[in-house]
Amino acid sequence: MAYRVTSEDSQGRFRIIKDIFTDPDTQSLMVRVRFQANEPGLRALVQVNPYVNNDGVDDRAKVADDALIAYSGAHYLSLQSAKGLSDG
User: Fold this and answer.
1) In sequence order, which residues have a C-beta less than 8 Å from that of residue 72 and are 6 or more positions away?
2) Among 15, 20, 27, 41, fewest CB within 10 Å belongs to which?
3) Which helix (H) or strand (E) holds 5?
């Protein structure tokens, strides 16, 4: 299953496009998010507060190969960026 959700700022300054799809054979959910700025100086920021395995207990995290990875047992969350990640 796959679908696209497009959200646009009411003043037309930016657009957020989400492509969401699943792989039922691996019980995976993928979300690709693109930020399109229509005004100079705008940028997207992301904050991740994972509750892996839907509980937040004993979750672990690491940074590897330009990805933020959180996991608990066999359940994983990975955040990656085509433009790289920075602390601000």
Assistant:
1) 52, 53, 55, 57, 58, 59, 60
2) 41
3) strand 2-8
One-letter identity of residue 79: L
Q: Residue 54: phi, psi to the nearest 5?
A: 65, 25
- Is residue 84 over pLDDT 80? no
Question: What stretches of the chain show up as alpha helix (H) in DSSP?
Answer: none
Kindly report the pTM of this predicted structure: 0.77
Provide DSSP, 35-79: EEESSTT----------GGGT-TT-EEEEETTEEEEEETTEEEEE
Domain boundaries of the chain, sorted by first residue: 1-44, 46-82
